[in-house]
Sequence to fold (257 residues):
Amino acid sequence: MFLEINQVGKTFTTEEKQFQVFSDINLDIPENQFVSILGPSGCGKSTLLSMVAGLEDTSEGSIILQGNKITSPGPDRGMVFQQPSLFPWLNVHDNITFPLKGKMSKKEADKRATHFLKMVQLSRFRDNYIFELSGGMQQRVAIARALAMDPKVLLMDEPFGALDEQTRHIMHDELMKIWQETQKTILFVTHSITEAIKLSDRIVVMGTRPGRIIADIKVDIARPRERGNLESIELEKEIMDLLEGEINKVLKEELSR
Ligand SMILES: Nc1ncnc2c1ncn2[C@@H]1O[C@H](COP(=O)(O)OP(=O)(O)OP(=O)(O)O)[C@@H](O)[C@H]1O
Ligand SMILES: [Mg+2]
Fold:
């Protein structure tokens, strides 16, 4: 299998307290699959993505990419964080080319920056500093930076959450194009069920307290996926019921405290 998440668990230890986010997470992901992860806030989606990125270690189990155990970050994995994490002392263009330094010629890096800046519609802002951009614009720079690195696996943590509806649709189409052209494997965290249904081959639904996988759904709807088709609506309802069950469980627990 291309990417294997084997019996992975995570426990955070802070001061004398231990907190188990999840345990026994298992996912086999073939190359080129587009996998979305949905789940209530706090179930461990970002934690799981950080572990695949190699930024967070596993407390139990292992993550294997093309036969190699993940122990640190690498150029084969690109991450778009929930909060855009850019270099404030560099302009937009240099933020995108910075990770490419030493890996290719300056000319090639510039070419990639130009290409992906156009894609995220920020060509006009190439010389601006990060503080001069809005949150959504910063997130688009972060997306361009991850894509310019051309990783095998793209890890995207609510990448379009801060964007307006129209821009989000444009980004969906662009991401689909890139995914189809480049055979990338994508792990995509979102809170939007419709977004997950529009984009994914497969939707993994997580529950919380304790974090775990409660459903692993194959999305068998022909592409390009039109908005509001019947199959999508049915699937949306199925997932909404699953998530509502989890959220109600947390609510009940909170109210009884
Ligand atoms: N560095 C850390 N130290 C201690 N606890 C942490 C740390 N990072 C995350 N957690 C805890 O782990 C749990 C999962 O957090 P995580 O950020 O993965 O959730 P999430 O599913 O991404 O939520 P959201 O949808 O709100 O982004 C939370 O309860 C959080 O408090
Ligand atoms: Mg998160």
